[in-house]
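U., I forgot to send this yesterday:
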Amino acid sequence: MRPQAVRPAALLLAAASLLAAPGCAVIHGAFVYTCDRVMDTADMMDFGVSVTPRLSLSAYACLLGLGGLGGGTVDGYFAGIGGSRVGVFRHYHSNVGLILYAYEVSGWGTFDLNDRETLARRRRGPIAWLFFPGSDKCEGGG
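Result:
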């Protein structure tokens, strides 16, 4: 074999070794871990701005899933982190919360207000746990 032919092969082998090195795997792992944490955050909170074609008022706090306080209805678009999504997308919610009982209806992304199966519905709080067992889980789509 000629020495000139060995150099490109050696360089190619060295480049392949560097790409497969454990250091690159650590960087890839850190990137995947960070992406997973961003998605976890999207599952845990809703934070953003809603824009609606008509005036909508809503002031509602979920109280960590143990109940709710406030109420309102919004039918428009949401920009931020919400509904396990990040970005700008269609959003609907209609909520009422009286601390001991809360009823929430929401739709994120693709949904039809006339089709209950495309909307997520939840009852929360001690009254819901006593009179509607299992209703703290999401019913419908969403």
